[in-house]
Amino acid sequence: MPLEVEIKNDKICKIKTKKKMIPGSLEETVFTKVPNEIIKNQSLSVDAISGATHSVDGLLNAVEKVIEQAGGNAQEYKKEQKEINLNKKHVSAHFSNDFSSWRTKPEQIVKEYNTDFLIVGAGISGLAAAVQARQLDLNTIVIDKNGFVAGNGSGVEGIFGINTKMQKAAGIHAEKEDIISKEAELGQYRADGSFWVDLINNSADNIDWLVNLGVQLTKVDDYHGTCMFPTFHWFKGGFASVGYVPYMKKKADELNVKFLLETSATSIIEENGTIKGVYAKTPEGYIKINAKATLLATGGVGHNPDLLEQQGWSTKNIHYCSMPSNTGDGYQMAMSVGAMDMLKESPEFMMNYIQAFPHEGVHLYLDPINGFMSLPSGGPVVFVNQDGRRFVNENVKKYNLLYQRMAIKATKVTYEIFTQRIFDKLTKNVENADEILAKALKENEGNSLFKANSISELAQKVNLPVAILSKTMKLYNSYCDNGKDLEFNKDKEMLVSMKDGPYYIARLDPSNLIGVGGIGSNRKFEVISNNFEKIPGLYASGMDSTMQYRDVYTITLGGSACAHNVNSGRQAAKNAKQYIQNL
């Protein structure tokens, strides 16, 4: 981010960005709010902004350098930083299933609001719900613990749609029933298929609605060849932060939606079995929001290690691609009022990464070496468990990118074995790949990557049974020679012999992009109890409510999660309107 910083008469008087920023984005929040605080207080000690640690640190570092260049002492502009961290509330070191704290009334309320419709979370789904609600003349308040809208939605690349105008213009056609039946098959027929019918039947209308609101879509395809059908509609710029968020926020503002940012829901209000709103924490203190209907759209549980472990995932060495704000607040509030618990049946967008290789930022999954379609995802490599045994088809990602991690959930630890020849093949289009590999070996973050001249030496590097690993690799090489994997039937073209070194072994650690689901709901997106009875006044949408999935996200239908986010937000608003009218 290019900055212009001016110091005059021993005072910081200007901090200005030299880049056009998207209205309502994380960038705009950081590079307008923080400079104002620095200039006003003449201090580099500013309140943290949830979800923007790196951006704030970068800005402060830049101003500090200018102070030093101007002959000043940056330390004089520092004092103990008061950090407002709304993300870690209710995340305890010793997790329990007691969610009673999410029913606690704060001792002091500094302000009270009244509204028809309260939306907790301003991501893809929350924005869709907000615009739809105002189009239905519902007084609407949206709160978000971040200092900006979008949440995890910023990184969403596109949205699913079937038989849309864009597809018809491109000569693309697919039968709805083919898609629905394939999704049922991939989900082992465990989900209520009517959720898929509704989503797919509404998808074209939802996209028309978005386009009419100004949302920018550029092309439709099969998402890098990973989808069964060409149904992936790309947002302008390749991200919702460019093609979706600014246009939806602008429309919401035009419709007078009230946004309360840096406002974190801390507990839910229930009276006689009916939900009446939430209590929330702001930088000024606790507030009470009375609402006739409340929508939970908090983005799932993807940044809460306790809840991930409840699902059976290991969180040791985990890399989070999700926003730090996605701590499962909506899920925990819903559980506190007796909602159906779908967490253990809900999938995570969990993939592999290797700690020694570059893994900076939230877009790790796009890294050309360490991403979800690159080296750690599998292919012509060998995966072995803690016993030195193969346990899965290493090319299973071709059926679903998320399958690369599923079997690893059943192991204590998993290692990937490859040779220099395989590495060169997988990284042939990556500039300076050999230099990156050499640096990774030298620094070896997390003791996760080793090189050896023999398989036995490789086993010793990570304390695997030498005899078992040697046998595993001898068998694997025979499969490569014969062109037939007699254990897991891996594709012939992915059987590459590893008779010649040098050899590498890397530990595969978890990289989590988003949490998907957790709260039981019906087709009206009303939150339901264990006996399928609705909890009056409470709705769930987006990644808090994904009843169409079980255990694994079927990414083969590209963009279906985003399509669900928009659809569930819209439908929840429509159904809340009917509910409010009947009160």
From TrEMBL:
It catalyses: dihydrourocanate + A = urocanate + AH2. The keyword NADP does not apply. Keywords: Coiled coil, FAD, Flavoprotein, Oxidoreductase. Its cofactor is FMN; FAD. It comes from the Bacteria. InterPro entries: FAD-dep_OxRdtase_2_FAD-bd (IPR003953), FAD-oxidoreductase_2 (IPR050315), FAD/NAD-bd_sf (IPR036188), FMN-bd (IPR007329), Succ_DH/fumarate_Rdtase_cat_sf (IPR027477). Pfam families: FAD_binding_2 (PF00890), FMN_bind (PF04205). Its EC number is 1.3.99.33. Belongs to the FAD-dependent oxidoreductase 2 family. FRD/SDH subfamily. This is Urocanate reductase.
